[in-house]
Design goal:
Layout lengths: L1 H13 L2 H18 L4 H8 L3 H24 L1 H21 L7 H22 L1 H12 L5 H24 L5 H20 L2 H26 L4 H28 L6 H24 L1
Helix pairs in contact: 1-9, 2-10, 2-11, 3-12, 4-5, 4-12, 5-6, 5-12, 6-8, 6-9, 11-12
Length: 282
C-alpha cells in the first residue's frame, strides 16, 4: 500500500480539490463499500447453526436501523458514534495482528490509535470538517477539542508502546515502522483534501487489508479464485449500498455536499460491520 499512498500523495500535490474529491469518491464507493458488503457471508461462515445465524441477522439489521434512527434524532451523536466506532475498528484491523496483550489493553490501544488518526485528519482539514459538520449538525468541533484529542491519544499510544517494549511483547522495529506510517499519513493529510485523505486511509490502509483477511477467513487462503468468488458474492449487497447512497442523495436536497451523504451511509454500515469483524476475529 506504500506505493499507492506515495502516488496519491504526489497526486494531491499536482491536482486541485475537485479532482482529488472525485478520485476519493470513486475509491470509497468501490473498494470502500465493497469491503463491508460480505458481512452476511462472514456471519454464515462463523455460525453454521441456522437459528444462531438468523438471530445474528436480526441483530445486524437492528444495528443498521438503530444507526439511522440515531442520525435523524441527533446528527451530532451520530457523528460522534461514527468517529468512535471507526476509531476502534481502524485500530483493531491495522494493529490486531501485530500488537496484542489482553482485551482491555488491546481495546485502549486500538481505540487510541484510531482517535489519533481522526484527530490528525481533522486538525489538518479544519475548514472542510467545519463545512460538513455545519451542514449536518449546525455545529462543529473546536480546534481545542481536536488538539486535546491529539494530545491524549498520542500520550496513551506512547505510554502503552513503552510498556510493550519494556515487557518485550513487541519488537521496537514494529513500533518504529508504525511511527513511520503515521508520519507518512500526516504528510498525506496535510497536502490532500479531507475526503481524499480519508479515502487514502479508509481504502488503502483499511479496506484492502480487511478484504484480504475476510477472503482468508471465508475460503481458507487468498487465491485469484477465492478473491473472484468473494467479489461475486458481494456484488448484490454492494449494488444495494450504492443505490441507497443515491436514494439518500436524491431525498435530502438540503445536503449539498456529496461527502456528507457518504458519511450518512458509511455510518449506517460501519456499526454492524464493526460488530461482524469483532466476531470474526474473536
Amino acid at each position: 500500500m506504500l506505493f499507492f499512498t506515495f502516488f496519491l500523495f504526489w497526486f494531491s500535490i499536482q491536482f486541485g480539490g475537485l479532482v482529488e474529491d472525485s478520485v476519493a469518491f470513486v475509491l470509497i464507493v468501490s473498494l470502500g463499500i465493497l469491503h463491508g458488503a460480505n458481512d452476511l457471508l462472514i456471519l454464515s461462515k462463523g455460525d453454521k447453526n441456522k437459528t444462531i445465524f438468523f438471530k445474528h441477522l436480526i441483530i445486524y439489521i437492528a444495528i443498521i436501523v438503530g444507526c439511522i434512527l440515531i442520525y435523524f434524532f441527533s446528527s451530532i451523536l451520530a457523528i460522534l458514534l461514527f468517529v468512535l466506532l471507526s476509531s476502534y475498528h481502524f485500530g483493531e484491523e491495522h494493529l490486531g495482528d501485530k500488537i496484542t496483550l489482553n482485551r482491555f489493553f488491546n481495546f485502549i490501544f486500538y481505540f487510541s490509535y484510531g482517535v489519533f488518526l481522526f484527530s490528525m485528519l481533522f486538525h489538518e482539514s479544519m475548514e472542510d470538517v467545519d463545512e460538513i459538520m455545519l451542514e449536518l449538525t449546525d455545529t462543529t468541533f473546536t480546534s481545542f477539542q481536536i488538539e486535546v484529542s491529539l494530545i491524549v491519544s498520542s500520550t496513551i499510544l506512547i505510554l502503552f508502546s513503552l510498556y510493550l517494549v519494556l515487557k518485550k511483547r513487541v519488537e521496537i522495529q514494529t513500533l518504529l515502522k508504525e511511527v513511520f506510517y503515521l508520519g507518512l499519513l500526516f504528510l498525506v493529510f496535510k497536502t490532500s483534501s479531507l475526503i481524499l485523505s480519508f479515502a487514502i486511509y479508509f481504502v488503502l490502509w483499511h479496506s484492502i487489508p480487511s478484504i484480504i483477511n475476510q477472503v482468508e477467513f471465508v475460503y481458507g487462503d487468498l487465491t485469484k479464485a477465492s478473491l473472484v468468488s468473494y467479489v461475486k458474492k458481494a456484488i448484490l449487497y454492494w449494488v444495494i449500498s450504492v443505490l441507497s447512497l443515491l436514494v439518500v442523495f436524491k431525498l435530502t436536497p438540503h445536503m449539498s455536499l456529496f461527502s456528507t451523504i457518504i458519511f450518512v451511509v458509511l455510518f449506517a454500515v460501519t456499526a454492524p460491520h464493526t460488530w461482524v469483524m469483532y466476531k470474526m476475529k474473536h
